[in-house]
């Protein structure tokens, strides 16, 4: 039994999806994507993700040759076809990937064929990430800075993750639970590989301004929930020193939802408990919003092992 993926108009077993080595997504990272997750098999906020995807496509001047509604239907079909392969307690990470297409042989670099469109899903890495959710992350700011908005609009969710990948590699060996949050070129904290960061200081939430980071869908959910819970939220420039002296911190991402941070640049945060009280309150509110206990889902994947 093999998962199916949508590839340029067809649903194919994954092993039959063959991307050309001339594809610009492969050659140049000339592609955009978006990623959702399912909760109990249902895709969360698909419309919002597709709106963001079409925003990325427009900013990158890529025409996918499909309407947003068609993309929604293809995504739903892809998940539907693969649901029977999910094990109990698992959920899918669902991706739309659109490249500018193939380079034209004998042509110029700005020329390309039609867009390559892939919609695929894989089980969320629940077991691999459960220890991070259980214990909290050790966040470090690597020396590598985030590509600035003047060079690449952070609202384009592009395939080109090299800046984030290299930054992540810089911190990987510092702790088993290491996570990179890059500083921007002005020296303020920005974002990490597929993740936004929040600090908690004096019962208020602080997060980098959306002009410098991809405004994650999970970030938006948390901001709205915090306002409902009466927790003040401030989007502004944040220094690494503020982060290291915050009471609590957490990251948000589609896959994690909310993951507590236990230390920043080697300093334990607050009372040293991760999650701290505000992070726990927001995680519970998040679980109510998505109608799914995502924390238990992660922890249960450990199946009694300490991992
Ligand atoms: N920042 C970057 C650079 C990302 O690529 C992502 C998503 O992968 C995020 C933040 C978090 O966004 P979301 O909450 O929509 O997953």
Q: What integer value in Å does the Rg equal?
A: 20 Å
Please provide the count of β strands.
15
Q: Mean pLDDT, nearest integer?
A: 96
* Helix-strand topology string: EEHEEHHEEHEHEEEEHEHEEEHH
The quaternary structure here is: single chain
Q: Look up the CATH topology of the largest domain.
A: D-amino Acid Aminotransferase, Chain A, domain 2
Strand order of the largest sheet: 2-1-6-5-3-4
Note poorly predicted spans: none
Supply the CATH class of the largest domain. Answer: Alpha Beta
SS-based structural class?
alpha+beta
Ends: how far apart?
28 Å
CATH architecture of the largest domain: Alpha-Beta Barrel
Give the overall shape: globular
The CATH homologous superfamily of the largest domain corresponds to D-amino Acid Aminotransferase, subunit A, domain 2
Number of domains as seen in the coordinates: 2
Helical fraction: 25-40%
Ions, cofactors, ligands: which are bound?
Answer: pyridoxal-5'-phosphate
Q: How is the biggest beta sheet arranged? A: 6 strands, antiparallel
Number of helical elements: 9
Percent strand: 25-35%
């Amino acid at each position: 039994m093999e998962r199916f993926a949508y590839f340029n108009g067809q649903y194919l077993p994954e092993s039959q999806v063959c991307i050309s080595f001339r594809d610009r997504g492969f050659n140049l990272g000339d592609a955009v994507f978006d990623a959702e997750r399912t909760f109990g098999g249902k895709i969360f906020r698909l419309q919002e993700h597709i709106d963001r995807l079409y925003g990325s496509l427009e900013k990158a001047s890529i025409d996918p040759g499909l309407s947003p509604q068609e993309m929604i239907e293809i995504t739903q079909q892809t998940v539907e076809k693969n649901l029977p392969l999910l094990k109990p307690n698992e959920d899918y990470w669902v991706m739309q990937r659109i490249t500018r297409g193939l380079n034209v042989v004998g042509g110029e670099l700005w020329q390309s064929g039609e867009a390559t469109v892939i919609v695929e899903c894989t089980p969320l890495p629940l077991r691999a990430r459960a220890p991070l959710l259980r214990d909290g992350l050790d966040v470090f700011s690597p020396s590598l800075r985030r590509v600035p908005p003047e060079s690449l609009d952070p609202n384009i969710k592009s395939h080109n993750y090299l800046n984030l990948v290299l930054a992540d590699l810089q911190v990987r060996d510092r702790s088993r639970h290491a996570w990179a949050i890059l500083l921007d070129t002005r020296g303020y904290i920005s974002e990490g590989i597929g993740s936004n960061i929040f600090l908690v200081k004096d019962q208020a939430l602080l997060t980098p301004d959306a002009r410098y980071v991809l405004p994650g869908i999970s970030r938006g959910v948390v901001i709205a929930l915090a306002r409902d819970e009466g927790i003040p939220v401030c989007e502004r420039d944040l220094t690494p020193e503020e982060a290291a002296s915050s009471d609590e911190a957490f990251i948000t991402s589609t896959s994690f939802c909310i993951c507590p941070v236990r230390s920043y640049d080697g300093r334990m945060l607050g009372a040293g408990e991760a999650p701290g009280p505000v992070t726990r309150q927001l995680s519970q509110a998040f679980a109510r919003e998505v109608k799914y206990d995502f924390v238990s889902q992660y922890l249960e994947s450990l199946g009694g092992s300490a991992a």
